[in-house]
Design brief:
163 residues, alpha+beta, Pnp Oxidase, Chain A, six-stranded antiparallel β-sheet, four-stranded antiparallel β-sheet, 4 helices, globular
Length: 163
């Protein structure tokens, strides 16, 4: 069955919010890193997160070995959070075609993080990434969870309506 995310959750991810990427080794040792960019297709079926190779070596190795990925997308001001999981992630070097996505993500994160009191210089330093150090990791989500703090935290969104 194909995972169907509701339009509101797709819109949250599409606007560019905090993205933390995780995986684990074959021995189940976790690895995690902040993404420097993300995008989602209009139908929610294709997600790409961007990682700095130099900061994410173990994570990228784990994704290569297992294909597994989990990403939490969170609005800093509200803590509204969505977790997506997949078992077939694929990697490629970022190219010039990815620059508009990375620039839009930076601009959005300047706004999102600004809502909690941090300026653009902070965000710029946090997300600085020379293109030749960026890896795009694409996946089709096969599970989704509401991870917003509160009574629904951890609730599965997997199903025909994704809600």
């Amino acid at each position: 069955m194909t995972l169907q995310l509701d339009p509101d959750r797709i819109a949250m991810v599409a606007k560019g919010v905090s993205a933390i990427v995780a995986s684990c080794s074959l021995a189940l040792q976790p690895s995690v890193m902040r993404a420097v960019g993300s995008r989602i297709s209009a139908d929610g079926q294709q997600v790409t997160v961007y990682l700095r190779r130099s900061q994410s070596r173990q994570l990228l190795q784990d994704i290569t070995e297992t294909g597994r990925i989990a990403v939490v997308f969170s609005e800093p001001a509200t803590h509204r959070t969505l977790q997506l999981k997949a078992s077939g992630a694929a990697q490629r070097p970022a190219t010039d075609d990815d620059l508009p996505v990375l620039q839009a993500y930076l601009k959005s994160m300047e706004h999102e993080v600004g809502l909690v009191g941090y300026g653009p210089r902070y965000v710029g330093a946090m997300l600085a990434a020379p293109l030749d150090d960026v890896v795009a990791v694409a996946f089709t989500p096969d599970a989704a969870f509401d991870q917003t703090p509160g009574p629904r935290a951890g609730a599965s969104l997997t199903g025909p309506q994704g809600a």
